[in-house]
Amino acid sequence: MKMHLASHPPKGMPRAIVLSHPDSAAQLGWPDASLQALRAFWDRGGKGWFAAPSAQGDAYVQWIEADATTPAGAEKHRQAGAALAKLLNASKFAEVALAHPSHPLVEGLCLANYRYTDLFGKQKAANTPALEAIHVHGWEAQALKNLEIRVESVLLARTLINQPVNVLNALGLAQAAADAAKKHGFTAEVFNKKKIESLKMGGLLGVNWGSLDEPTFTVLEYKPANAVNAQPYVLVGKGVVYDTGGLSLKPTGSMDTMKSDMSGAAAVIGALSGAAQLQLPVHVIGLIPATDNRPGGNAVTPGDVLTMSDGTTGEVLNTDAEGRLILADALHYAKRYTPQLVIDLATLTGAAARAIGSYATVAMGNASEPVWSDLLAAGDRVHERLVRFPFWDDYNELLKSTVADLKNIGGADAGAITAGKFLEHFTDYPYIHLDIAGPAFADKPQGYWSVGGTGIGVRLLLEFLSTRTA
């Protein structure tokens, strides 16, 4: 979507105005009849957007008593923006002028206006949002630019997630990361299968056995000259471009959205793209192990034992618990950077989704309390909330194997936690695991989430990294 500043609302297009009370509409220069209708709407307890004619064209007015500077209030403003997007598109408006809007309202409007239409043929026009541009007056240019970067970073992640595996396989995902790096000013190095073999990444290679497509391992790096951190932040994203479950085959219905099993990788690409464009003074590295998980070829079988790149042997008791196998190699690889903090993002377990639904991300790890405080607060501010699960060593008992160092599932209980403890085995640094299985993909519109990939994690990471500047 095009966004630009405007000192005055362009004539002949709808305006969006947020008021705390209808009395404050008197200064807008509307006809008395419009003001009276607005007052009556207020008195009736009307909700949503009120349409009224004005000298500048149609105006849509909503009153939001919530303070946009608080986390809860900001989310109400985002949802108001999403409602406005729905109204404008239903009315087939191509442009809108926003009169001194809050930042969250504009964010919600832009995020809600996204649709993935690349694969439509004859129906592309019918499924493309009518709204093409917004005109914002009352903001500084840099504030508008920063919001545009954050929104576009989320939309980049969404588009990657929404592409099916016949359009975006592991090689395609690596190429998309490299393209983003070239466009936005960071670096990308893609390891092919031969390089992955030389690194003895047995988890990534084992999951890939059932596929005709080769795996990739992508290293992204944003290192500005003014970086304030001597040790980098490392972001690790699960890049399973499609997950059938392997020989532990998923039911057909459960496979419908499995193109989204690389949502963690998409979030990492989006976050690096945003950090570079925002010129955040932080050194950030992104690691993306990528493959599809299929039951063909010489696919890994339950009972097989794989050797990860750190020498740990893992008994595979469920081939649908594949994400932790490829992440294990990436987390071990991260050790070479002596990182200040490693955060992984993965659509890892159905247990996480069942525990809290799509309302938040399950989080766990061994990072310090100040880091946790900052990350949780960042999540609240952008409404990508985190629910912190226990990470006690007691759960390690559930991962003991009779034939190998570890087994890749811990049983029916505490599935999200045992997955996280499996991953922790491959770390020797401050670590946080984000299981985004619940909110990564929307099967129906939800506020400013359109159907498909949500890009969850991008705004969280950018907000968190923007605080790590001292």
Please tell me about this protein's structure:
With 470 residues, this protein is α/β, with parallel strands linked by helices. It has two domains: 138 residues, Leucine Aminopeptidase, subunit E, domain 1; 303 residues, Aminopeptidase (3-Layer(aba) Sandwich). It contains 15 helices and 20 strands. Strands 7, 8, 9, 10, 11, 14, 15, 16 and 18 form a nine-stranded mixed sheet that branches. β3 and β4 form a beta hairpin. The longest helix has 22 residues. It is elongated and about 80 Å long.
By CATH, the architecture of the largest domain is named 3-Layer(aba) Sandwich
Q: Total number of helical segments? A: 15
Termini separation: 33 Å
Biggest β-sheet strands, sense, barrel: 9 strands, mixed
Number of strands: 20
Percentage of residues in DSSP E strands: 15-25%
Mean residue pLDDT:
93
Number of domains: 2
CATH class wording of the largest domain: Alpha Beta
Roughly how many Å is the radius of gyration? 24 Å
CATH superfamily of the largest domain, by name, is Zn peptidases
Can you lay out the helices and strands and say which pair or pack?
Layout: E1 2-5, E2 15-19, H1 32-43, E3 50-54, E4 57-63, H2 71-90, E5 95-99, H3 103-112, H4 124-127, E6 133-137, H5 141-162, H6 170-184, E7 187-191, H7 193-198, H8 202-208, E8 216-222, E9 233-237, E10 239-243, H9 252-255, H10 263-278, E11 284-293, E12 305-307, E13 313-315, H11 323-333, E14 341-346, H12 350-356, E15 361-365, H13 369-382, E16 386-388, E17 406-407, H14 415-424, E18 431-435, E19 441-442, E20 452-453, H15 458-467
Parallel strand pairs: 1-6, 2-4, 2-5, 5-6, 9-11, 9-14, 10-11, 13-17, 14-18, 15-16
Antiparallel strand pairs: 3-4, 7-8, 8-11, 12-13, 15-18, 19-20
Helix pairs in contact: 2-3, 3-5, 5-10, 6-10, 8-11, 10-15, 11-14, 13-15
